[in-house]
Amino acid sequence: MNTVEEKLWNYIDGSCPAEEQEAIRRLIEQDEVYRRKYDELLALNNEFAAMELDEPPMAFTYHVMEGIRNEAALNPLKARVDKRIIRGIGLFFVLSISVMLIIALSSIHWSAAAAAGSTPVKFTLPNFSHYLTGPAMQISLFFDVVLALYLGDSYLRKKRMQKEDMSVLPGGQQGKN
Description:
The protein is an all-alpha fold.
């Protein structure tokens, strides 16, 4: 839309200041381009005013609100957990246990004499002490502290939200705190 049309629409709508209305009125009287454009826009505005607006049926709002209520009722208020996340966590633990079992079984000293039953099999667990060094423990401890803070914060937020929900009664009335 150009500025001529914008000025004329503002003049037709009456949304421009009085001095600008006077200037546009003089332009319409003096300039042929403004007069033709004004006549076009005025005819269009009259057509718009003569149109009947379609109104939704009386029960439209009720049906929309019921649809929203039904949709909200289908989804529980608790957050849904993605099954892929659960499977990923389970897969991590299964792989971890499998790796530890394989390491433990590979560290057993098998011998032919042990198979004959003359000497018992020596079973020693692998040495994990070189994995549990200072920096590894610090990283693990840091992760645990951050996780504990996050879980504590989410618990307190949930508790506060429940308290706020209980303080507002249906109908917009405030309950006693």
